[in-house]
Amino acid sequence: MDSKRDKDQDAEFEKITPVLLKSRTGEFDLESILFLKLRGLGIHDLGCIGECINVERLDLSGNNIANLAPLASLRLLSVLSLSANRISNLEPLRSCDSLQNLNMAGNIIPSIESLHCLQSLRKLENIRLKDNTYNYTNPGNLNASYRTIVLEMFPNLKVLDGERVVGRGSDLYQLCKDIDDTIKAGLYKNGQLIEHPDCKPWVEDSYWEIKRSNSAIIEEAYKQFNDVLHECRLLNNRAIHVISQTERSMSLKKQPKQYAI
Questions:
Q1: Does the keyword Repeat apply (predicted)?
Q2: Spatial distance between the Cα atoms of 8 and 10, rounded to a whole number of angstroms
Q3: Is residue 196 in some structural domain?
């Protein structure tokens, strides 16, 4: 009897239903759901997920999803994880205007051309199509020029496959990548790095110098902060005094009047 009940419960997870969503989020109204995590439940049918029109973060990784059509109505969705599924067509995501972060590692996306439908998503700045940590990839990643092509397709992209390509930290990341590539190229012989006289440094000599801020500005800001903090303490003391007087006054009013005989 118990095995039948467990089997019925597993069958519910094969498709997203209102009952599943309400049990996972505690929300009675599907439109009230903002964050949704449905990882590793064996889901293959997105069912009523399209009714969660206000969802902003959605994790559907580790399922058996192939059809993304129900996601087309999620216009406020900004973070979407679909890693480790069976997805080959990204066309339904074209209408997810708010999408910023997309994880599609570990699917069956056939080629880089499959990403063309996402080029209209102006806010998209983080795409992951492979994940070396879990050995997730896609057939389209096998192209030797894959990285270059994707960056040309999405000029606003800041992070690709977990690697920062622009912005703060990108120079350091590229430096580490160059070092790794050098090691992989076999430039070490008997534990020693083969020197090349024509090699140039990666960065300028002044790159690592600490740029000092104007100390006068910092001191003035610190002084203003202390002044504000002092005023807050004075207001707190006044509030405590007023509350104390009010409580004392109320306690006197509640005391029964005594008459001399």
A1: yes
A2: 5
A3: no
Residue 215, SS3 per DSSP: helix
Backbone angles phi, psi at 257, to 5 degrees: -75, 140
Query: 13-38 pLDDT, tens per residue?
Result: 789 999 999 999 988 899 999 999 99
Which pLDDT score, from 0 to 100, does residue 6 have?
Answer: 46
Q: For residue 130, give the DSSP letter.
A: -
**If we measure between CA atoms, which residue out of 134, 131, 119 comes closest to residue 161?**
131
For residues 116 and 91, what is the distance between their CA atoms, to the nearest angstrom? 9
The CA-to-CA distance between both ends of the chain, in Å, stands at 82
Average pLDDT over residues 199-222: 65
Judge whether 23 lies within some domain. Answer: yes
**Cα–Cα distance measured from residue 23 to residue 9, given in angstroms and rounded to the nearest whole number:** 12
Q: Does the residue 145 lie in any domain?
A: yes
CA distance 21 to 12: 11
Asked whether the beta carbons of 31 and 52 are under 8 A apart, the reply is yes
pTM of the entire predicted model: 0.63
Q: How many domains does the chain have?
A: 1
List own/partner pairs for 4-11 with CB under 8 A and 24 or more apart.
10/42
Q: What is the CATH number of the domain that holds 55?
A: 3.80.10.10
**Where in the sequence is the domain holding 40, given as residue range(s)?**
18-166
CA distance 250 to 257: 14
Is 98 inside any structural domain?
yes
Place of tokens 């994790």: 59
Length, in residues, of the chain? 261
